[in-house]
Amino acid sequence: MYADRALLRMGIQRFIPWRYAGGQNNVLVVGPSGSGKTVAALLLAARLASRVPHARAYVCDFKNADWAFLEGRNHYYSYLDCVRGLDEFHEAFTARQMGVDPSREPLFLIFDEWQAFCSTLPKPQLAEAQKKLAAVMMLGRSFGVGHINIAQDAYAQNYGNARSNFQVAILMGNISKEAAGMFGLDRKDLSPVYGPGAGHMLVNGVDLHQIQVPTIREMSPLQAAICQIVE
Ligand SMILES: Nc1ncnc2c1ncn2[C@@H]1O[C@H](COP(=O)(O)OP(=O)(O)OP(=O)(O)O)[C@@H](O)[C@H]1O
Ligand SMILES: [Mg+2]
Questions:
Q1: Which of 22, 32, 93, 227 is buried most, with the most CB atoms less than 10 Å from its CB?
Q2: Whether the Cβ atoms of residue 56 and residue 105 lie closer than 8 Å to each other
């Protein structure tokens, strides 16, 4: 999915896989502004569309920018409408959990700018949103429910303390010592990166890879693929 940056430096192109079917249903993309999180997530979503049969996604685009090509679709939500997006996704998850909906086809929530969303909501609404997301993250796997979360920082409280349920963490750019510590990493474990699209991928909390997100020269094929999975 993303190129192994250590091998790339030696002229070898090898891609590190994302094994959705192998239980990697919760993916976090974290890093400073401009580090390339959204581009990395757009690639993930396109991957979902092309490689995971029958996948569907709900997209919450709090910034109301990079996913606006989905405007007009029922399951695209921007800015404050993301509250409704999370509610509707949570309802779809609950329907599976309650046995009302027996289907187990992959159903994903893609939430861009989760931290900014959290810092905007009033307290009672915030607690409710975090609780819903935590339930999806903790129990979703058995029901075919997954989640891609994009945030500038990954404070545990923003995930209702369910952060350890991210099987894959994509750490874009040069993250802070504090941010590295959130994943049990030492800042020294992370090689310095230059320019957008470079970072690290931590799988199951132990396998750390240096990654380079491929440069996307033409966005429209990627967007067309994503449109197929958002109703
Ligand atoms: N893989 C990449 N290859 C080349 N350029 C990239 C790549 N990823 C991102 N960029 C460039 O960097 C810019 C910022 O990327 P992106 O919007 O993904 O960052 P971000 O981390 O989501 O930022 P923000 O937190 O502000 O939303 C893009 O507009 C693009 O020009
Ligand atoms: Mg972004």
A1: 93
A2: yes
